[in-house]
Design brief:
41% helix; 9 strands; 7 helices; 19% strand; 5-stranded parallel sheet; 203 residues; alpha/beta
């Protein structure tokens, strides 16, 4: 009798960084490389109550919802994790769990608390922190944002300083730092590809 092929559960890669580091760009390029490479990796589209930035598309970059709609989803138990650490709500749907169980690995962008939450709920979670090589450059990037109020920028700068000195970082599996976007993308992609390969081989 032929042995049935059973899909092993996928890995959940959590990408975290302070505002302005470029985690969204890194995640997008990782997914593009995965599709070119034939790697079974998809990005989780999370929910947020903030307004879309320029060129952001609902259902592609985020699901943009009202505060009342988000709170209703909280009450319904829709999210595996949610947070308002950045002054607006962000949340990840529980629907990622059956996708992982079917063998597809996922990449999701989360803040520190969200990262710890999903790590406590799903064993095959890999936490990656992108560090800014220079907080002064990070401040410049945040100040350059036209879509945010001055109060919002100051809030995110203060939060970035706190995040980069948090003891939570000790619980991350990897911390990557580089001034070069291509280098960061290549390093992270190789890490993800290696982890998925080892998992499929049963290591």
């Amino acid at each position: 009798m032929k042995k049935k092929n059973v899909a092993l559960p996928g890995s959940l890669f959590v990408l975290s960084a302070s505002s302005g580091v470029g985690k969204t760009t890194v995640a997008r390029q990782i997914i593009e490389k995965a599709h070119q490479d034939g790697l079974a990796l998809e990005q989780v589209i999370t929910y947020t109550t903030r307004l879309p930035r320029k060129d952001e598309i609902d259902g592609k970059h985020y699901y943009f919802v009202s505060v009342s709609a988000f709170k209703k989803k909280i009450d319904e138990g829709f999210f595996i994790e949610w947070s308002d650490a950045y002054g607006t709500y962000y949340g990840s749907p529980k629907t990622i769990l059956p996708i992982l169980e079917r063998g597809t690995s996922l990449l999701v962008i989360l803040d520190q608390q969200g990262a710890l939450r999903v790590h406590s709920l799903y064993a095959k979670t890999v936490l990656v922190w992108l560090e800014s090589p220079d907080l002064r450059i990070l401040e410049q990037r945040l100040h350059a944002r036209k879509s945010e109020s001055e109060d919002g920028k100051q809030f995110r700068i203060g939060l970035a300083k706190k995040e980069n000195n948090s003891s939570v970082l000790e619980q991350y599996h990897y911390r990557l730092t580089s001034n070069s976007l291509p280098k960061i993308v290549d390093t992270l992609f190789n890490l993800i590809r290696g982890t998925i390969s080892d998992s499929q081989d049963g290591k």
